[in-house]
Amino acid sequence: MTETASGPARGSRTKGSKVSKGLRIERIHTTPGVHPYDEVVWERRDVVMTNWRDGSVNFEQRGVEFPDFWSVNAVNIVTSKYFRGAVGTPQRETGLKQLIDRIVKTYRKAGEDYNYFASPADAEIFEHELAYALLHQIFSFNSPVWFNVGTPQPQQVSACFILSVDDSMESILDWYKEEGMIFKGGSGAGLNLSRIRSSKELLSSGGNASGPVSFMRGADASAGTIKSGGATRRAAKMVILDVDHPDIEDFIETKVKEEEKIRALRDAGFDMDLGGDDITSVQYQNANNSVRVNDEFMKAVESGGKFGLRARMTGEVIEQVEAKALFRKMAEAAWACADPGIQYDDTINHWHTCPESGRINGSNPCSEYMHLDNTSCNLASLNLMKFLKDDGLGNQSFDSVRFAKVVELVITAMDISICFADFPTQKIGENTRAFRQLGIGYANLGALLMATGHAYDSDGGRALAGAITSLMTGTSYKRSAELAAVVGPYDGYARNAEPHKRVMKQHADANAKAVRMDDLDTPIWAAATEAWQDVVRLGEKNGFRNAQASVIAPTGTIGLAMSCDTTGLEPDLALVKFKKLVGGGSMQIVNGTVPQALRRLGYQEEQIEAIVAHIAEHGNVIDAPGLKTEHYEVFDCAMGERSISAMGHVRMMAAIQPWISGALSKTVNLPETATVEDVEEVYFEAWKMGVKALAIYRDNCKVGQPLSAKKKEQEKAEVTEKAEETIRAAVEKVVEYRPVRKRLPKGRPGITTSFTVGGAEGYMTANSYPDDGLGEVFLKMSKQGSTLAGMMDAFSIAVSVGLQYGVPLETYVSKFTNMRFEPAGMTDDPDVRMAQSIVDYIFRRLALDFLPFETRSALGIHSAEERQRHLETGSYEQSVDDVEVDVESLAQSAPRQQEAPKAVASAAPAKAEAPAPQQAHTSAELVEMQLGISADAPLCFSCGTKMQRAGSCYICEGCGSTSGCS
Predict the structure, then answer these.
(1) Is-contact 554 568, C-beta < 8 A?
(2) What gap in Å lies between CA 497 and CA 518, rounded to an integer?
(3) 759 with 838: CB under 8 angstroms?
(4) How far apart are CA 858 and CA 860, in angstroms?
(5) Residue 516 in contact with residue 464, Cβ under 8 Å?
(6) Catalytic annotation, pick one of 192, 364, 431, 818
(7) Please, how many CA atoms are within 13 Å of residue 256, restricted to the half-sphere of its CB?
């Protein structure tokens, strides 16, 4: 049972009451008499965001005002996501000044109303420093602050919520309602279902209970219907079940069974991609699942003993299971579909500051916020790269003094927000005001480590990350104790004073025992030590204003808004990035952190240029000229030829967990080749290392986009390119290549197909060259002279001429399949049972008739026979025993190659055209092109680009949309 606030409804201190004289606010970045806005150059930009797949405009606002140093991506995301008011109306915000003013002026007014400041001058300094930090992307509040603060709508500032549910129908229905209200406000929620009695227990009426897994269906359907925050992002939720619950095996297997269903439906022709028409028929897809394990269970796993499953009503053991076997089932399920994650109950509650008010049972959707039931947490994250100082001659240092001052500023602002914030339910409002949980964190850790010459998976990297984390949390609690002297401790502190001070001592002791590694982390550890000494001293005297201070969030949208290279505590995605340019267009660039790292490691500018050029060409550092092999690890990334190992991720989590109040939003990535034993190792070693929670993700374990682009095709293209270079070197004059049309002969073989899509009938005639390469398509629908018939004729001519000029059929197939418009639905073709449009059906049929198996398989297109074979054997392809391979027929069925173009003399030197590269739209897609693979991350539901992982969620680098993180 959680404690509720006994103070006023809007804060724990009434206006005008006095505990102390208020805070003196110190200047960090600003100049007296000069507003931060006057120190930067402003410019007008046009924000036009399109869906690259169909060219439609998703968002457009012209003439927005931003500082000239803001990146295109940051401008686009902040304008489209955070500006308030209807587009095209006078009420719409038109510049960053309006947005920042809306927030910081609200915070200043609340700070003055609730007597946080010693004087009006201190309030003005607070406003200016907060504005400066937001303007210069030094930190960011979580998204709900940007959405709601200073607007007429409810001022919900929290992104993370924990609910509770009891074993009654009334409580279960309240759960559905409360979750829906939180989703509507643009946030996510999590809860533990373990109070609900199992399906193996009886109801008071004598019948069997439904069990929590059954009630999860209703909540899942609700989450799928209510998109979080309307157009802002999808619903995000977490469901947890204790490992001793009698229904634990059913809970573990829920998503595994549904994943099998997804594969079967996909193979039958249904659209099972994220956002697809048919994915809604599958259950349990709108939540992250986690099992809450305790030390008793983990020790039974370690010793090979039995473990008891307990009745919810009586607590008696009703079944004994083999702990290792149950642990194995968890690992197998996570290996198969990435769920469930794992949470370590005893570790979590060992660091609990308020145990007298209740246990920690649940977490938010991304597992970084863990505290009392029916509470919330507002987040803010600092951009660590903003505190890296260049001391000259390649020397760098972390500005720990300025970092600590910014932490104090941000914590003050975050606490003020609880005074004026609105909450989705009365219980959450009361408990949040009573305990005032905060979640300060950071982004860009991966970039910082690389820039300072530290490998992510290294003792030095972990020491630097630990030192920064310790200083951040120590400074936060120090400021919390100072706030307690000014406006009083949180209402639940008196009851929890001793355990709170005990946890502070645990943090301080961990800081004292930490290993110092080099000249970068040692001064930060010293500053952290001083901060923790102040925490213990001031906490004993004043108490604390906040029950919790820090978490590490995924920093999805806000990370992009701050132009961070890496999110949360994640390593860098890759060494080469996709960058949007002012005025349109894009370019590929080598991360700016790479040259910084090389300077830190002692390389000269000439060497740096050569290494950067090598990375730009190859996407990795392997065999880079002059780069020492012992320095390769500094440039290891989340993806690429040298990707960080799973245990490397776990070790980093363990290195910073002792100085985080809550937990860490982190998914441990595993390669597709990882085994169930690898998953078991991650889950077991994380417990040993003191991590509070984590989830794993094995590449391609979930149904997503086509699995892989063949490396053989990439190698073939490289051989062809080298051959063309040799030929060009052999000829004396420079030539210009132009495509030449190859017309079909008078007599040509063809296939005529009748089809029905969603009730609309039509005919397609596909004619081919004598060597079987497709060269012509005719489509007949509706009556001659109608608009539809005319458009189909024009479309047929355009496609046919393109084919005759050498446009590969697979290019058309990749562009036109999955295009969605009416008529759509069931077809009469057994190979393509469902089509999203006429065009989608046509090109799937053409792919089946004219593309070789390998090519269309990579595009995810298979016949009914092949899908049936996959269900029976696990492979779409016929085995050698099933079919006698006819080499001649295979050669004939290969796609037609463009004839060697005729050379045309050019008056001026010109480069011969290289093969047209595949187009990337984000850094994630660029990495996939370089590696010759296609990861199974979902496509953004707003702009169609490939998303990338951010903690337990996904983030779209193109438009900032997320699958649930803040």
Answers:
(1) yes
(2) 37
(3) no
(4) 5
(5) no
(6) 364
(7) 14
Please give the helix or strand (H or E) that residue 777 lies within, else none.
Answer: strand 774-780
Confidence of residue 53 (pLDDT cuts 50, 70, 90): low
Residue pair 195/201 in contact (Cβ under 8 Å)? The answer is: no
> What letters, b where the CB count within 10 A reaches 16 and e where it falls short, cover 27-41?
ebbbeeeeebbeebe
Domain ranges for the chain, please list them. Answer: 168-198+215-355, 573-636, 739-875+893-900
Which spans in 268-322 are helix H? 295-303
Specify the pLDDT at position 329.
97
C-alpha 429/C-alpha 421 separation (Å) is 9
The reported pLDDT for the residue numbered 810 is 86
C-beta neighbour count of 825 within 10 angstroms: 16
Distances (CA, A) of 385 to 448, 596, 713, 726, 814: 6, 12, 39, 45, 39
Confidence band for 226, pLDDT divided at 50, 70 and 90:
low
For helices 72-82 and 96-113, angle between their N-to-C axes, nearest 10 degrees: 60
pLDDT of 917 strictly over 50: no
Q: Which amino acid is at 704?
A: G
Which of these is catalytic: 160, 366, 419, 965? 366
pLDDT value, residue 883: 45
* Contact between residue 668 and residue 695 where contact means Cβ atoms under 8 Å apart: yes
Residue 106 has pLDDT above 90, yes or no: yes
Is 591 annotated in the active site? no
393-416 per-residue burial string, b: 16 or more CB within 10 A, e: under 16: eeebebebeebbbbbbbbbbbbbb
CA distances from 359 to 350, 369, 682, 869 (A): 10, 14, 26, 51
Given the residues 112, 178, 368, 925, the one annotated as active site:
368
Structure tokens at 773: 């390469």
- For the whole model, what pTM was predicted? 0.77
Identify the top-confidence range among 255-269, 571-585, 650-664, 885-899. 650-664
- Reading the block at residue 584, the tokens are 């349109």
N-to-C CA span, the chain: 28
Q: Of 167-176, 199-208, 227-236, 519-528, which has the strongest mean pLDDT?
A: 519-528
368 is catalytic: yes
Give dist(CA 670, CA 667) in Å, integer: 9
Residue 771 — φ and ψ, nearest 5°? -90, 15
Beta bridge partners of 576: 590
**What are the two backbone dihedrals, phi and then psi, of residue 810, each rounded to the nearest 5 degrees?**
-65, -25
Active site annotation includes 701: no
Structure tokens at 482: 């100072």
